[in-house]
């Protein structure tokens, strides 16, 4: 490669990387379609349908790696653990702990 073309080549490479990074940022922002409130509502509805009323006196919900991790703690101490896809709202994991 000619020395005169090296700066041009590097500037094109840097611009291409910056464009890719911006596209990834936009794509990641679009991935999270389900809000925290919607994830909690989904978990509560499923808990009511599956285990009956009384689940979810205390609620903890956190976003992690594309999933809403929701924990509903009943007044008797039982905990329901959900992993809900932030993309499509499907329940990917459900577990009950005493």
> What is the CATH topology descriptor of the largest domain?
Nuclear Transport Factor 2, Chain: A
Q: Give the CA-CA distance, first to last residue.
A: 67 Å
In the CATH hierarchy, the architecture of the largest domain is Roll
What's the level 1 CATH class of the largest domain? Alpha Beta
Order of helices and strands: HHEEEE
Strand content: 25-35%
Instruction: Let me know the average pLDDT.
Output: 78
The number of distinct helices, counting runs of at least 4 residues, comes to 2
Unreliable stretches, pLDDT < 50, 5 or more residues?
Answer: none
Estimated structural class:
alpha+beta
Which radius of gyration do the C-alpha atoms yield?
22 Å
In what order do the strands lie side by side in the largest sheet?
1-2-3-4
Main pleated-sheet profile: 4 strands, antiparallel
Q: Give the total of domains.
A: 2
The residue fraction in helices comes out at: 40-55%
What is the 3D shape? elongated
* Strand element count: 4
